[in-house]
Design brief:
Length: about 130
């Protein structure tokens, strides 16, 4: 897979591909995505499903972090302009993001073999296996 796709996947789904540059004695991800560019959409979709809750938590964290000290909209029209984003709000969002990251499986190897895609992961839940 080309380097642009590789970097995109590793950055967007960081917990899933955390071993991308790890030692070859611990993972086969050190060799990268061993498949052609044609598999990118399928890998991206699968990665998104495996990391769905983490991606949502990360987007929330990034949004709230960028608004530190500014007024926020919390869904309640009466209080929407009276609430300010605090360090505690940011810390809470970070904890949630970190908790979701722990639930994401870790990719061990992604490769093409005999014309099919092989996507090996560790520490999955029954829902993720499905």
């Amino acid at each position: 897979m080309n380097i642009r796709y590789d970097r995109y996947l590793v950055k967007k789904y960081a917990p899933l591909y955390q071993n991308r540059n790890a030692d070859m004695r611990t993972t086969a991800m050190c060799w990268g995505f061993e498949c052609g560019d044609g598999w990118f959409n399928l890998i991206n979709t699968l990665s998104a499903h495996l990391c769905r809750e983490w991606v949502d938590a990360k987007e929330d964290y990034d949004a709230i972090k960028d608004r530190a000290g500014m007024r926020k909209c919390d869904g309640n029209e009466d209080r929407a302009w009276n609430t300010i984003v605090t360090k505690e709000d940011i810390a809470t969002a970070k904890v949630k993001m970190d908790n979701e990251a722990e639930k994401v499986p870790v990719a061990i190897q992604v490769k093409e073999k005999f014309g099919g895609l092989r996507f090996y992961v560790g520490r999955t839940t029954n829902e993720q296996d499905g």
